[in-house]
Write a structure and sequence with these properties.
The protein has helices spanning about 5-10, 10-20, 25-30, 35-45, 50-65. By secondary structure, it is mainly alpha-helical. Helix 3 runs antiparallel to helix 4 (about 35-45).
Length: about 70
């Protein structure tokens, strides 16, 4: 599944994102609105990780959606 699908159906995927990254608030998820770069930034802030690690985690998350 590609990120365009996630972005287009963000309200459906918000719950799965919240399960994966519980530190993200509902307000943050609403602000992200399915935008991958926004999610990367919020993961960096919430978890104190670098961009590469955030990208790796999102890629892993995408693989679980198949």
């Amino acid at each position: 599944m590609n990120w365009d699908t996630v972005e287009g159906n963000w309200t459906q995927f918000k719950g799965k994102v919240k399960e994966q990254w519980g530190k993200l608030t509902d307000d943050e998820l609403d602000m992200i609105a399915g935008q991958r770069d926004q999610l990367i930034g919020k993961l960096q802030e919430a978890y104190g990780i670098g961009r590469d690690e955030a990208e790796r985690q999102i890629q892993g998350f995408e693989r679980t959606l198949h």
